[in-house]
Amino acid sequence: MLFQLRSLGLLIIFALSPFISFAQNSDARLTNLGPQIKAAMIQGSIFIQDREGKALIYTVVRGNPAHLVAFKAENQELILDQPLPGTDGAWDMELASDGWLYIPGAKGTLYKHFPGTTTVENLGIVLPGETTVWNLAAGKNGEIFGATYPGCRVFRYHPKDGFSDVAKGPLIQGENYVRSLVYYGKTAKLYAGVGSHAGLIELDPKTSSKLSMLPDEYKNKEFVYSLEILKGVPGGDRMLTLITNGSFTLVYNLQTRKFEYQIDEMDMKAVSQTGQNNRFYYTYRSGLYSRDISLPQQAPVKHADNVGSANAMRIIGRQLFILNSDAEYLILDLDHDKLSRNKLNVPGQPIAIQSIMKGPDGRIWSGGYLAGGHAAYNPKTNTTTSYPGLHQTEGMTVKDQFIYFGIYPKGLMYEYDSRKPWDIKASNPKFLGQVADQSRPFAVLSDQESGKIFFGMVPEYGMLGGSLVSYDTHKAKLQSHGVLVKDQSIVSLTYANHLVWAGTTVSGGLGIMPSTQEAKLFSWDVQKGLKVDEFIPVPGAKAITSMIIGPDGNIWGMASGTLFVFDPKAKKLIRSKQIYQAGVLRSHVWRDAFLVLHPSGKIYGTGSNQLFRVDPKTLDHEFIEKSASLLAMDDLGRIYFHRSAELWRYDPAKE
């Protein structure tokens, strides 16, 4: 069995250099400013051998679209670079028993490719309603199995039979993720790791029978995130089971059917098969280690530092081949414990925009989806400058010359002094901290009166209840004020009548359904540190995703497609109007609508993937453009939104 990736790799290689944006649109009001952020983020990876026995390195570069690339291991020559239309990434790869390579698209699709050729076939959506394929496992006679989200399903694909739902429904009722998957040939059984409430299921693909295996003491964890089988080990083949959060690995004996012991210092991002002396290799905190799987009491051996995080590993003869997340190809001589390094020239791709905002110097800042990174578009010079190094930004705000970032994962918060050079190593941006069990800071607000920055949080996977967090810029102090609306998260913030106002969503982290029915608006007294009032401005709305101060000094917000006006002094709803019909809540809602007050007095917004305009006097509205989301406005009143990786500009003055 060849090794395949079980987790995420990351590489951002673009420097702080400006590039000229471009325009191509027949409508004079609209300008396509082009992709803002490019990255060479590698994901699913594998070492395979071609028909002549030569080693090849395959990986997927995240982008819009993602690209499947391949290199010759002997000289790192790029021999394949093919787009994967319909997906922006792939978390895994697997070589079937008949020699076909399968790639699971991050958008619920499956692709196949025969190594050594230059074509890729899109096989379509694996199962209706499944939007992500995480892991693949090769069965017998050319069959492939895959793990999906949000239905917690396992599918089978065979060229003659097509797709089928192996378990005939979710592996665990109420869960969303099958995050990891392996096939054990000796028993023809599948083993599937579930989240976001950890579960481990033995699945018979012939009968669809399921057996829960995870001991009760581990079921309070988030995920069985990764699984690997080590064969040919004395005493029985073993299965390595990575449990998160907690990030430790359980060793399961497939012969005795017992969990034997726990390994704490192991991240399981990539694991080699066992070589001589029953040793397998793995990376942990950038170091390269090996262990004897049959000797739990024996300490691991460290072979090298600064190896990075491995995306793929394979032992060939007396050499260990490694591809790390920085796209370095490393070879460890197992006889002499000597490591060599080679750099792969991975072609970078445009990545989707996750957040936009006008910065302190009038530039339009963008944050990248998943691969992270930032860029700033200068409307005066029509150039974009890249700022690499931070992960996925969910929300941003400005105070004086500073930009504050709310980062996923783990709810990281940063402060950037725009007067100084962007230098991650020199702590500019500076890490401010994080809050336990909080994951996504979508709402970020600068309170000019108190000098504090507020972050509205969405919790970790499988949890309900997002905290309100403040950062005191004078005292350089980060403080969590806890979950202020039970089981709800904070996704919008504004300031009015000497109070911070927060809009909530009924949703929490991925992998858990809401326990409440209606989003709430509440106020927070900054000086007293207390919640003051709580309202439901739009009955039945699931989320209040945007709030601004309108031309009348009142709070104007959007809640599940309805525009509402709320008087923060009288503390009452003044009026409301449905702008569009909100969709049915199937999983979660964190973001939808965005609003800005234009110098003309009109209000512009995006929602339901459309750009619209509202007359504040009459609440009459009109839709201006389709395929538009996120929102920012420059100093000249021009409106910015995004379409996937591209930043677009709408100029109301040209109407």
Overview of the molecule:
This protein has 655 residues and is mainly β. It has a domain at 352-434. It is built from no helices and 58 strands. The strands form 15 sheets. Strands 1-35-34-33-32 form a five-stranded antiparallel beta sheet, with no helix packed on it. Strand 33 (364-368) and strand 34 (374-378) form a beta hairpin.
Question: What key phrases describe this protein's structure?
Answer:
single chain, 655 residues, mainly beta, five-stranded antiparallel sheet, four-stranded antiparallel sheet, 51% strand, disordered N terminus
Which strand order spans the largest sheet, edge to edge or round the barrel? 1-35-34-33-32
Radius of gyration: 26 Å
Distance between the termini: 62 Å
Backbone structural class: mainly beta
Helix percent reads under 10%
Molecular shape: globular
Total helix count?
Answer: 0
Ranges with pLDDT <50 over ≥5 residues? Answer: 1-24
The oligomeric state of the chains shown is single chain
Largest sheet composition: 5 strands, antiparallel
Estimated share of beta-strand residues: over 45%
**Overall pLDDT confidence:** 93
The number of E-state strands comes to: 58
